Automatic annotation (TrEMBL):
The keyword Ribosomal protein does not apply. Its EC number is 3.1.3.25. Keywords: Hydrolase, Magnesium, Metal-binding. Residues 156-171 have a biased composition (Basic and acidic residues). Gene3D superfamilies: 3.40.190.80, Fructose-1,6-Bisphosphatase, subunit A, domain 1. The lineage of its organism: Bacteria, Bacillati, Actinomycetota, Actinomycetes, Kitasatosporales. This is inositol-phosphate phosphatase. GO terms for molecular function: inositol monophosphate 1-phosphatase activity; metal ion binding. One of its GO terms (biological process) is phosphatidylinositol phosphate biosynthetic process. It comes from Streptomyces fungicidicus. It comes from the Bacteria. The keyword Metal-binding applies. Its cofactor is Mg(2+).
Length: 281
């Protein structure tokens, strides 16, 4: 638990801008200087050809782990690279303490290729409830934030996802086939139908931002790693959107979800996509 009598809401009211400052600093110090300047020895593969990690990922996560844990005494950190090194550390997300969920470079493939479509994702949760999130795309110069009950914002402007235009095919970003089981592939095939236009996803964080901005209609993802989804799910919720698993219930960042799952601009679209995923499987 938090080591003071301060609630998470009180902490956010007082220190949310400090979180943003640390995220910007991590990007400025550890990520952007390496963009389009990565040496071969600074890039490694983890579990497959599409699962990359760089020194920028590692060093940015180390900086954020130290800075954010110090900012909120009693909190813990679940970071992508730390969990890769010690899978048992993921269990902290299911505990009672406030937990920072960090993806230092979401879209590492794009980052390695020198493309601009990557971002840093941070979320603050407790007991499976998302309280705040930060999505920073430094090259695109976009910073999105969300606080539960207080809305979602992009560079200070309120985000409202809205609803898809009637009669137009739904624009749905889907998981890369390499990260899906046979059952999940069958679920995703349910999207290949009239009225839906599926496409491969890019950075998960930027796909969620596109939903919150009303530039895309839905996602269909087949993996649970909280660092990819936590920040974006709250951003979409606070912009008026919704998320559902193939079983028709909201996605739980602590795991145990029936996959694939969807996030969408509005409840009706989420329900439609979830039904298609269930029918396909």
């Amino acid at each position: 638990m938090i080591e003071t009598n301060e609630t998470i809401d009180e902490f956010l009211a007082r220190r949310a801008l400090d979180v943003e400052e640390h995220i910007r600093k991590a990007a400025a110090q550890e990520i952007v200087p390496r963009w389009r300047r990565l040496a071969e020895h600074e890039v490694d593969r983890k579990s497959g050809p599409h699962d990359l990690v760089t020194d920028a990922d590692r060093d940015a996560e180390l900086y954020l782990t130290e800075a954010l844990a110090a900012l909120l005494p009693g909190s813990v950190v679940v970071g992508e690279e730390a969990v890769h090194a010690n899978p048992a550390s993921y269990e902290a997300i299911r505990g009672d303490a406030p937990v920072w969920i960090i993806d230092p470079v979401d879209g590492t493939r794009q980052f390695v290729r020198g493309e601009s479509g990557f971002c840093t994702l941070v979320a603050l949760a407790q007991g499976g409830v998302l309280h705040a999130s930060w999505t920073y795309a430094p090259v695109l110069e976009q910073f999105a934030t969300a606080v539960r009950g207080r809305g979602a914002h992009l560079d200070g402007e309120r985000l409202r996802a809205g609803s898809p235009e009637p009669g137009r095919d739904l624009r749905v970003a889907t998981s890369h086939p390499d990260f899906t089981t046979d059952e999940q592939k069958r679920g995703l095939l349910g999207l290949w139908t009239d009225g839906v236009a599926p496409r491969p996803c890019g950075s998960a964080g930027l796909e969620y931002l596109a939903l919150a901005r009303g530039e895309s209609d839905a996602t269909a993802f087949s993996w649970e790693a909280a660092w990819d989804h936590a920040a974006g799910l709250l951003l979409v919720e606070e912009a008026g959107g919704a998320h559902l698993t193939r079983a028709g219930v909201p996605f739980d960042i602590r795991g145990g979800n029936t996959l694939p799952f969807t996030a969408a601009r509005d409840e009706a679209t989420a329900r439609r996509v979830a039904d298609l995923l269930a029918a396909g499987a």
